[in-house]
Amino acid sequence: MTRQQSFTRIENELLPRFRKQVSEAETTGEVQKFFRHCLRDLFAQASAGRVSAADEDISLLPEGEETFRIGDRVRSAPGFAEIWEASDLPQIFTRFAEAARNRFRHLAKNPEKTEAKIRM
After folding, report:
1. Could you report the per-residue pLDDT of 9-27, keeping only the tens digit for each?
2. I need a surface site. Which of 52, 62, 64, 99 has the fewest CB within 10 A?
3. Quick check: 51 and 77 in contact, CB under 8 A?
4. How far apart are the first and last CA of the chain?
5. How far apart are CA 22 and CA 101, in angstroms?
6. What are the pLDDT digits (tens) for 60-80?
7. Would you say residue 116 has pLDDT above 60?
8. How would you write 27-73 as a 3-class SS string?
């Protein structure tokens, strides 16, 4: 039986800041940015710096069944598969992506309100 590594401690450290940033986001672009930055930090901490991700390596997918995408550069990095397959990172990424996706959809649905707030 293989042992699964848990990164919920890191998730719990990053979650309050992420929630605050996403809830204060005024555009869908900001939601994307906060999502990428948070998951980049999560990768760095979970891999102890062995796997690094740039902004273009992580994408929030607002539509469809998949909620996020990790780029090939990160997937092919040494140590990625080991960390990804033997941990709860996929579930953690999904939770962050679902929260970001909900805010993204809300902002996309009401662009007039968002624009009015920005102009004030």
Report:
1. 999 999 999 999 999 999 9
2. 64
3. yes
4. 58
5. 10
6. 999 999 999 999 999 999 889
7. no
8. CHHHHHHHHHHHHHHHHHHHCCCCCCCCHHHEEECCCCCCCEEECHH
